[in-house]
Amino acid sequence: MANKQGMSGIDVRAMVTELCGHLPLWIGKIYQYDTKTLGIRLNGEGGVKRQFLIETGRRAHLVASLPESPKTPLGYAMFLRKHLEGGRVRGIGQYGLQRIFYIDIGKKTGVLRLVIELFDEGNAVLLDEGGVILKPLWHHRFKDRAVVPGEAYLLPEGADCSEMDEGAFAGMLAASNRDLVRTLAVGCLLGGTYAELVCSRAGVDKDIPASSADAGAVYAAFQGLIRDVEAHPAPVVTESGCWPVRGLGTVQQAFDTYNAALESFYPEVPASVTKAEEKRPKLSREEVIRLQQETAIKKFEGKIARAEKAVEAIYTNYPLVQEVITTLQRASRSMSWQEIEKILKSSDLPAAKAVVSVHPADAAVDVDVGIQVTIHVHESVEANVERYYDQIKKFRKKKEGALAAMERGVPKQKEKPKETLHLLKKKWFHRFRWFYTTDGTLVLGGRDASQNEELVKRYMEGKDTFVHADVHGGSVVIVKGPTEHLEDEVACFAASYSNAWKAGHFAADVYIARPDQVSKTPESGEYVSRGAFIVRGERHYVRDVPLGVAIGVQLKPDVTVIGGPTAAVRARTDHLVELMPGTFGPNDVAKKIGRVFREQVGDEIWKKMKAALNTEAIAAFVPPGESDIVGEHEG
């Protein structure tokens, strides 16, 4: 049944079947309202328009009208518009009885598939003709599959008996060590209520062992339920949920279509898609601070509760956690973490199955013990528990601080004296890419092959550090002194200003070397192109460095546009935007950022400082390739 938490596989089958009855359809505008909710206008024959609302992880159905669209389209909606708008819907289907359905859209370039996941956190994933992921709404890496660009789209592991013939179905029941209702609920993805309905229709006791059930009667009841859902639906809402068939509770309201029943059952629009914020009275400064303090306290309480649950879960599953630690400690002595991860994915051992994900850099794994906990494999069970106790202490201290601040009240705001602003004087390195690390070290990067040559030949010195993304094409990065942020900020800078960004990747490997390892002199028979270098000897690699930069307006001590890793930019200004690889060209992104900054700093400052604050200055920090603005910050 469809309940407030979401739809089941049977409900998805009913919705998809009805939607197929409206074909042919064409894709109109696509909207994104928040991080989980999408809307698609579907154009039919004769000018008929249908509105399809998707709340990933929960529900999807036709509605009478979509929520009001955001003033500024969000990034994933723009991506889908670019690839799908105007395309003809070639087919709509469901993967077995999983809570996953798809829409195939034909364009001149081929047929693309939009996959919608309605389980767990949910997702929307666009695939190319070969089933390779072009871009998901959310990037996820699981034990058995990766939902990231460039990977083949794989379904979650799990049984599905919707396509079984009677013989295979009987074999599945015979092999089960559960009772009948649990076998149907889990093994056939029916869920408890629909599994009980199948048992009732088959005239068998739901609590008997599945292996002793009348397989023929149960199979007939199971197939009969699917036929009724597809060919003879009778949509109703009862006290317990929204159903495509009757016989599952007292009917509160009947409907002609299941999509109409779902729309009635899910009447609320997500808060983020309304204009409620505009209707609320403006809060005073004191009220805003009070609200922030209350929110922070709730956040700390939630983190304390989760850490306490983690401690309890680790002790409850002590033998399993100990086995994970012992096994992985032993394996790590002779294998890399990448090899260990592959073995874990293919293993049927309970300890391996419990491992959800691997964190090679921390020698840690996430383990499912009722909740997901992080276990560092080179530490004892007790030491891992102590980590969570430290978190509890930290967040309790923060909560106490927030409570004390609430008791003190909000101090009166002092009027800030008007400050005189000065433009930053041009320096020799401003023609390169540049930023200062959080701890104050200057980092330089070449904008092209000519600047790469110049940086190495003219400006790289003995105590500097050479950094480069491990891809063809990218900035030569020179670190002018020691820094504690070589593997985070500097590596991010090198990865982001490389062709990895242009290719739409979200992570890249980066290597670090000494100046004496870098040479322009090739071996016999080798050729080194302009802007390229030979690095000899052992390099230090930083793997899977996330791409992402920030561009900001620095007002103090001098006014200028700055850019680089988000942490480094945030250390020098509160006025910034964050970028990720996306869909808009560099010039368009620079213009959008300019409009954001002008609004943040105000027209007066912007006009006075236009020599430093302009589109050209912003564009100098925009990475090569297409980008999306993913965050705006204003102090």
UniProtKB/TrEMBL annotation:
Going by the UniProt record, its keywords in alphabetical order are: Coiled coil
Q: Name one Pfam family in it.
A: NFACT-R_1
Q: Tell me yes or no: is Coiled coil among this UniProt entry's keywords.
A: yes
Q: Which GO terms describe its cellular component?
A: RQC complex
Which positions are tagged coiled coil?
290-317
Q: Where is the NFACT RNA-binding domain?
A: 432-537
List the GO molecular function terms.
ribosomal large subunit binding; tRNA binding
Top-rank lineage group of the source organism: Archaea
**An example Gene Ontology biological process:** rescue of stalled ribosome
* Name by which UniProt lists this protein: Fibronectin-binding domain-containing protein
